Description:
By secondary structure, this protein is an alpha/beta fold. The chain contains six helices and six strands.
Amino acid sequence: MSRRFERAVFLDRDGTIIEEVGYLDRPERVEFFPWTIDAIRVLNRAGLAVVLVSNQSGIARGFFTDAVVEDVHRRMGEMLAGGGARIDAYYYCPHHPDGSVAAFAKACDCRKPARGLVDRAMAEFGVDPAQSFVVGDRWLDIGLARTVGARGVLVRTGYGEREEGQPPGGIKADAIVDNLIAASSWILNNL
Ligand SMILES: [Mg+2]
Ligand SMILES: [Zn+2]
């Protein structure tokens, strides 16, 4: 039985928690930003569930297997634990409609900005999306926030700086900040 949380922070992975390196195919390539561990620890201490939500279409495309993604997340968990921080759940979408691996080559309800990964957190932890936050470096992360009724924070790391200047029509972030530690501060000030 999982711990219950009313609120969550849904964190994008690549370009938000770790450096964007293209398709991350080896755990050794995981590189946290200098502030990542502090940023996650303050969210832990505020009593928020910290839930990673990541599109990993590299699985559907045959670039790497889901076992590799699990290894990456295990490595991240070890690095976080060393600094007294914790991600409560690691959720990812392995699908893509144009994939080459039959089992994952499909339209799904969990590829962001679709809401499937958030629904998992609602079921597992009792999270209320309306009291929750999404942080990411792409407009699709903000789109996820809009889809589920959460607040969305765009960070300028990863693709964020480029994305900031090219918002798709009609979408607005609740905040645009330099990085994850600034996002954590904004969240604590807006609980
Ligand atoms: Mg990203
Ligand atoms: Zn999916």
